[in-house]
């Protein structure tokens, strides 16, 4: 089972560049600078100090580097005609953390367009996987599909919340995705464990 989970490098590069801009502004604060004004507004909104914004930016950079390494490893697998379910799950949750916690640190109008692109891409992947042969039957492929789909539910929920938060997509536009029930049935820890052991059937039946 091999699908395209490749993540555009240009988007990662753009995000990394914005992190560098934020870091430069924080280290050489110029209150007249437009970006600095955005940073001050962000600090006010979050009710944190500039030093705390700096700490958050460092954490953002760390998780982005982690995500970059994971996607690079996953893309390498895909180009070889392979797919690591564990890497898929870890990539999905790393991106979820970025969306949930650090997306507002991207002080650029492009973040709205990037958010929309990400949402549309992962919705497309989710709907594509959901109709794959094997989803309705007991098989190793079904087990893998369930794990990936469950992790995608977590990610898509975060993407939808971010779209509403940043006024990227409206509720009406999101409803047109026709996703149905995307309430995750398993936690991040459980999905990583299942992806690591590949024993979905046994564990899932015991839980049920």
Which features does this protein show?
208 residues; mainly alpha; 9 helices; globular; disordered C terminus
> How many strand segments?
0
Number of helices: 9
Low-confidence spans: 200-208
Listing every helix as H and every strand as E from the N terminus to the C terminus, the arrangement reads HHHHHHHHH
Multimeric organization: single chain
Could you say how many structural domains there are in total? 1
For the largest beta-sheet, the strand count, sense and barrel status come to: none
Share in helix: over 70%
Radius of gyration equals 19 Å
> Mean pLDDT, as a whole number?
83
Category from helices, strands and their pairing: mainly alpha
Which overall shape is indicated by the principal axes computed on the Cα atoms?
globular
Task: Report strand %.
Answer: under 5%
Distance between the termini: 26 Å
Mind explaining what this structure looks like?
The structure is a single chain. By secondary structure, the chain is an all-alpha fold. The chain has one domain. The protein contains nine helices and no strands. The protein is globular, with a radius of gyration of 19 Å. It starts with 8 loop residues before the first helix and ends with a helix. Residues 200-208 have low confidence and may be disordered.
Summary, kept brief:
This protein is mostly helical and 208 residues long.
Lay out the secondary structure.
Layout: H1 9-27, H2 34-46, H3 50-79, H4 85-102, H5 110-130, H6 140-165, H7 171-175, H8 188-197, H9 200-207
Helix pairs in contact: 1-3, 3-4, 4-6, 4-8, 5-6, 6-8
